[in-house]
Amino acid sequence: MKRTTISQIFADQDHFGGRTVTVCGWARTIRDMKTFGFIELNDGSCFKNLQIVFEDGVVENFKEIAKQNVGASFVVTGTVVLTPGAKQPLEVKAAAIEVEGPSAPEYPLQKKRHSVEYLRTIAHLRPRTNLFSAAFRVRSVAAHAIHCFFQDQGFVYVHTPIITASDCEGAGEMFRVTTLDMENPPRGEGGAVDYSQDFFGKSANLTVSGQLNAESFAMAFGNVYTFGPTFRAEKSNTTRHAAEFWMIEPEMAFCDLQGDMDVAEAMIKYIINTVMEKCPDEMAFFNSFVDKGLVERLSHVASSDFARVSYTEAVELLKNSGHKFEYPVDWGCDLQTEHERFLTEEVFRKPVFVTDYPKEIKAFYMRLNDDGRTVAAADCLVPGIGEIIGGSQREERLDLLEGRIRELGMDPEDYWWYLDLRRYGGTKHAGFGLGFERMVMYLTGVSNIRDVLPHPRTVGSADF
Amino acid sequence: MKRTTISQIFADQDHFGGRTVTVCGWARTIRDMKTFGFIELNDGSCFKNLQIVFEDGVVENFKEIAKQNVGASFVVTGTVVLTPGAKQPLEVKAAAIEVEGPSAPEYPLQKKRHSVEYLRTIAHLRPRTNLFSAAFRVRSVAAHAIHCFFQDQGFVYVHTPIITASDCEGAGEMFRVTTLDMENPPRGEGGAVDYSQDFFGKSANLTVSGQLNAESFAMAFGNVYTFGPTFRAEKSNTTRHAAEFWMIEPEMAFCDLQGDMDVAEAMIKYIINTVMEKCPDEMAFFNSFVDKGLVERLSHVASSDFARVSYTEAVELLKNSGHKFEYPVDWGCDLQTEHERFLTEEVFRKPVFVTDYPKEIKAFYMRLNDDGRTVAAADCLVPGIGEIIGGSQREERLDLLEGRIRELGMDPEDYWWYLDLRRYGGTKHAGFGLGFERMVMYLTGVSNIRDVLPHPRTVGSADF
Q1: Is the pTM of the predicted complex or chain greater than 0.95?
Q2: Which of A69, A446, B54, B265 would staple B94 via disulfide (CB 3.0–4.6 Å)?
Q3: Which residues on chain A are in Cβ contact (under 8 Å) with B45?
């Protein structure tokens, strides 16, 4: 048997019209009209279903097929018939149908609308629904688009480590990784747990960012990027936070903050254009059933320049907006999601980079501006999401970086190799982090991060 | 300043000859010939260096440049001069050179050969050497080739979870992931650690494989693949084991073991061909300095059919070989690396799939053959490495799978969702796992896994 995918048939209708094919897939619906029947077959190769018509007397096991349950898998051999004018452009008239695997009567995905909350409890089956089929295909296409974007420009992909023995970023709560016996861990003289006996000979955690490691590779390859999982052990039970998520972190030598924003903007446009081109059916679905303005909004973003505004100006805009915020805004405070969304949704009505934040609210490695009180950071805010990218030019001046580390009560010794990068041929450099799930939410209009993660890990939940 | 990369100049010599360019990079060597000097500049955009000639009187800060240390970074503006007949096809005559970042006198990468063991202690600098520059670029190109191979055929990329609350695979030792206070964890009534108070509400680990999750997506999308980090807490301190490594795991519905091997073989050939085409300088370097027969061997593999032999036949071949093995071989025993390498290096002299292993030495999910004692497994063995791929057709028959789970003393309840995939439209399906680092070792001839991992994590070591 030579199998043809449904995507191949739809992509080349003239070729397949009149030909005999064998298609394999799962029934989304089965209708028994007594002397004939219809199967809406989906094989996962594309969003669309293929209509199978089967007739008593032609298909010899008609009764067996007609009584199958939704979700059953079939191998169908038949002729492709073009049906111009009909709802679908073509169908397959079955000559033979084989039940590959039946579907038990209690199959949870009967033909009715289920809540996303319910579907999360059957994460092993939800990719068979329109919503999740579309979301996870867009996720896959977007991931590949990101690789192509960077690889085509000569960026080197670096797999930065997942397990780290440092907490250099110091960003939020981390997960411990251990092989010690939790019931009875080895203890040192003072009674404290003796991590020298742990697997790595010291205390270890899951990474929160690959940036510092990526910087060391940027100082060799010029342009690099990471694309891997990162972790936060924050107990935030929101629609935007997950304990495990994927991040893209490019890092570029000989690049300043303007260049950094140029790359970020070009990347977002490239991802949008690629997904709109490769997933038209999925995007039409999201536009109809999830977020009415989606396609228009994304098209607008892909074709317009992102705004750029300094933090100082942004704070003025917010203060003078007359809008009542839950959290008051003033120079020096961190922007809340409500502020970010107001800026991008109400003030600029498109993506906006907010730059040059007060140093106190940003990470130690960001480059100090000449004003002595702001750093060369740039966060990209997008409508419906808020912050999607956080970037900065990095502090390349050894004395300033060391000073900042000390100022924050950290020990420069812990950063010996990171500081080395400034001792030996340091360069101006910059980079950013894109939260991949937020990007997929932005692309699809899906509003809960749990519904763009194949198997979401959140506080209290690590099923499947 | 519009920056030109060295790779652009070498790729389009006719265009750049005679033109003024600005290049940025790091000095691999600097030679001061009193009235003029040479810099071998590397910018990481390609393996090759660019020769910069700078002359006293032309470059106004000649003395400053001439006294710079190896490793310093420069911004050079000058004219590209084609030099047919010379060792290098072109050089840049500098008009102006700016020191972007000096390199301190104790820079560890002076121009001499360092041992790989020493270079592992400066993992933040080793990508600046020829060996690691080549290895990590090949790694990046191979990773992208894998994405392209699958995406071009319509496979959906699935990010299977890193943190899992099941140990479904039961494969070897796992790392615990926890936010409990190790010094004083909460305990239940009997005194045992109370994992219901841990972050996920239960005991959690780092994944050893995304396969079971990938299967659930294959039952929706047909063809899927994973590419992500996996973990083993085995204390094996060998040249082939790391605690953290990357795996590729395709999973295909409506596919049997023959189809599985076809995809695996096509994938390996595609990776080899892509790397040979995109990294000619790197491959020439490995062929000269790391593994003399490398390019010839890889070319041979890319153009010949892989052998296929059953485990039963393979055992006979080994027993009748007259070769003295450290571990004796007999039907029923697991093949050791020495056996695997003998088969691929001495018997077949090319990659070989060994199929249909005794069920006792393989995982519970592999499909039982009609003989009742072997399973439809296929391991791919390659010269110099041994096993690089482990694959199988999966058991799609609910009763047999459940029986096997019980037989092994496991609880079918723990596998409820995995078994569901056989209840609701189950299909014949198959997949495999490729150890990415082993693939990179195979491509480069590098013999220690620590030298193809950007920041290796092994027992007792998680630096950088």
Answers
A1: yes
A2: B54
A3: 154, 221-223
